[in-house]
Amino acid sequence: MASAGTSGGSVTELASRLYDACISKFSADHLFYQQDLLGLDIVPKSDLPLLLQCTQSLVDQKLFRLLQGKNDRLAWKIIPREDAEKLQNLSPDESLVYNVIHSTGRSGIWVRAIQSRTNLHKSILDRCLKSLEGKNYIKSVHNVKFPSRKMYMLAGLAPSEDVTGGAWFTDGVLDENFINVVSGFIEFSVSKKSWYEVPASDKARNKRIKTTDGSATVRSKDAAGQREYLPYPPGYKGYPTVAALTAAVNQSGITPVRLGEDSVTQLLEMLCYDNKLVALNNGEVYKSVKNPEQVKARQARKPDEDPSVVEDRLVRNGMTEVPCGQCPVFNLCVPGGAVSPENCEYFETWIHEKSPLSF
């Protein structure tokens, strides 16, 4: 005759109390071992056989999931009651598929991996997936890293950034326009913290420019609407951090979603790769290569603008402007020869028309 302590009713009652204690004292992700459960003082006299009866009762009710813990030790994990109710209504095959998908969390799992882990025939697996999806227990997701793979995850979970690609992807497609808008805002914000405006000196304001006819004209820098900037000196501590830039982007209203520091760091690395920003102190702060006026002018330029317009750094490079740098007979050109600087038909034109001298 079975003792009262091990009767079916007593085991069910103890199992319920054990489950409630686990829910109230531990997180949902906690992995329970025998000593953890005995330490709750629910099972009288730390009776291990009785504990195993209770855990088996909870496993049968789909309230506990049996797992293999560290060093191949027996372990259990709590299943929320709403999930347990779902599992109780599933067939054994559906329950097997659901548990495999559940174990992958927000990462999801490839349908072929499900088949490999469950050993189910493809037709049975397809039927289970269709049934679970129809009950809204699971959902198919698009993985930007593996666009051709069909992936599944629990319906109530949001995919991780590894799956969706993060803020820079919309419906699995890279949103280049959004990236350009946010990166442009970041570059301009960094530029304002990297350069300071100074009053133009009289000498700089009135600049004499030699024209093609040999006359000289005076151009006012203020009249041209230009501003003069200087970079901050060494030791300057005001360069923006990743946290400051992330806060500025989220407060700007240019993004419909709240960006994290990881997403902003990706853009900062891209801008450094494009030689628009420079990372300082191992990426703690950033400075801009160009001043705010230069950044604004470049961003205002339309993509279909005349491609002959080049940046200042190229204009100041003599070998890219002088005819010699692109002359097809450069190697034959020698003073006094058949091809020489003295009789070059392009050199004189370049001096007087293409690159007027200023003094």
TrEMBL record:
UniProt cross-references to Pfam families, sorted A to Z: RNA_pol_Rpc34
Subcellular location: Nucleus
Alphabetical keyword list: DNA-directed RNA polymerase, Nucleus, Transcription
Chief site of localization: nucleus
InterPro entries cross-referenced by the UniProt entry: RNA_pol_Rpc34, RNA_pol_Rpc34-like, WH-like_DNA-bd_sf, WH_DNA-bd_sf
Family designation: Belongs to the eukaryotic RPC34/RPC39 RNA polymerase subunit family.
Function per UniProt: DNA-dependent RNA polymerase catalyzes the transcription of DNA into RNA using the four ribonucleoside triphosphates as substrates. Specific peripheric component of RNA polymerase III which synthesizes small RNAs, such as 5S rRNA and tRNAs.
Protein name: DNA-directed RNA polymerase III subunit RPC6
Species assigned in the record: Aspergillus pseudoustus
